[in-house]
């Protein structure tokens, strides 16, 4: 089992605009031309922050048009939020808050050897890194700059902690970088 942060970022390191918009992303690359199809087959659970979940809620029509469902995942999801949020009908969602470590243990006990996908945001991925639980970053970098917004990974990480294991060009507008995290260095 691995904990993987799979996300898209602008060239200057933002996953969304300051207003949580992802419009910049949709014209850049095709998911089928990335590792996503093989990646998602090994995912047993999703973890996301409230802003990511609310983006899915607020864009449910577009999500449904693209995927056939307003909740495009079959895996259970754990949503970290200190606020009460509406439940998406038919989705297996667990609302949680606080320390990620006990939530990680709960997820691990349920999914066995499948992977955990940190869908977003960057701060949540950073908390997994801080707890020495993050194994991989799979980052798709788009050929746009946003100048400000929600940071990809708001942590200082110095070499040799991240080890680049692959680079994949996704057409003319994106590249996918796959890193492993050397957890022994962060211990």
UniProtKB/TrEMBL annotation:
GO molecular function: 5-amino-6-(5-phosphoribosylamino)uracil reductase activity
InterPro entries: DHFR-like_dom_sf, RibDG_C, Riboflavin_Biosynth_HTPR
SUPFAM superfamilies, A to Z: Dihydrofolate reductase-like
Gene Ontology BP annotations: riboflavin biosynthetic process
Bacterial bifunctional deaminase-reductase C-terminal domain residues: 2-175
Designated name of the protein: Bacterial bifunctional deaminase-reductase C-terminal domain-containing protein
